[in-house]
Design a protein that fits this description.
The structure holds two protein chains of two kinds.
Chain A (H helix, E strand, L loop, with lengths): L7 E4 L3 E2 L4 E8 L21 E8 L2 E8 L8 E7 L4 E9 L4 E10 L1
Parallel strand pairs in A: 2-8
Antiparallel strand pairs in A: 1-3, 3-6, 4-5, 4-7, 7-8
Chain B lengths: L1 H37 L6 H12 L4 E3 L2 E4 L3 E4 L3 E7 L9 E8 L6 E6 L8 E6 L5 E9 L4 E12 L4
Parallel strand pairs in B: 1-9, 3-9
Antiparallel strand pairs in B: 2-4, 4-7, 5-6, 5-8, 8-9
The chains are: A mainly beta, B alpha+beta.
């Protein structure tokens, strides 16, 4: 069974100058249940977390992360990337129940 | 009669041994149960030491070159904004390969591992993390020359993330 990972949001410029270093802000909607919490009846709430994130720029990995249970609900991460060529950024999140979300974002470098 | 007495004594002795054995077994079981019950609750600094050893081996984790910005007081341990900046030119020859976040007293000492390279241009990352209790947070950067640098920060947590 593949579970659904909620929609993702990316904030990054649509245009950049060659060599410009810009910030990329990412967020995916996900309960990111740590597995260490209990419900009102004291039963443990099963773990359901995003475990990996990857960002590629024209097919090359520019940032990746391994996430553990101590990441807040709706995992948010930011990083910087240096503009090289026009092209496409692909962002991929995977969770521990087989859920995947992929988002692409175009950039024009001139 | 004599034989009976002997028998009885013997069986009493055996019963005594049996009880003692059972008591030991129960004590061991109780200790085990306690360990099982306590174990998942919170990571001890020993577990942090193990995680650091697994990640960086025998390399020395030096203080410096890393800046870790977290709130001094987190009213909500569920959302702790964290910013890490590493002093690095981020060139092909000299760059940050990875940035790790570790927690001293969360149930799991590893929080986040991020891979970087010269294509990032700037060694600055941020994330929102959870803190189970008042503790120290550790940010560790692995450089392209293999050296390992770190920064630690104390955080007071009012509302735990594990409730």
């Amino acid at each position: 069974m593949t579970s659904r990972i909620g929609p993702a949001r990316i904030r990054m410029p649509a245009q950049a100058k060659p060599g410009e270093v810009f910030e990329v802000r990412t967020m995916v909607e996900h309960p990111n249940e740590s597995g260490f919490r209990h419900d009102n009846l004291g039963r443990p709430i099963p773990r359901h977390i995003v475990t990996s994130f990857e960002c590629t720029y024209n097919g090359r990995e520019v940032f990746s992360a391994k996430l553990h249970p101590a990441i807040s609900t709706n995992p948010y991460m930011t990083f910087f990337v240096k503009a090289v060529d026009s092209g496409e950024f692909v962002f991929t999140w995977k969770d521990d129940q087989g859920g995947v979300t992929t988002v692409t974002q175009a950039i024009t470098v001139a | 009669m004599k034989r009976h007495k002997h028998d009885s004594h013997d069986s009493y002795g055996s019963h005594d041994r049996h009880v003692a054995g059972r008591r030991r077994a129960l004590q061991a079981l109780a200790a085990g149960a306690c360990l099982l019950a306590v174990r998942p609750a919170l990571a001890t600094p020993e577990e942090l030491a193990v995680a650091l050893k697994e990640t960086f081996g025998d390399r020395e984790i030096r203080r410096g070159r890393v800046k870790l910005e977290i709130p001094r007081l987190a009213e909500n341990g569920n959302i702790v904004p964290t910013v890490i900046t590493v002093d690095s030119p981020m060139t092909e020859q000299d760059h940050v390969r990875a940035i790790h976040i570790f927690s001293e007293k969360n149930p799991v000492p590893r929080v986040l591992e991020m891979r970087l390279g010269p294509w990032n241009g700037k060694a600055m990352v941020s994330a929102r993390i959870r803190m189970a209790q008042t503790q120290q947070v550790l940010a560790v950067a692995e450089m392209s020359d293999g050296s390992v640098w770190s920064a630690a920060a104390d955080i007071d947590v009012t509302v735990s993330s594990c409730t």
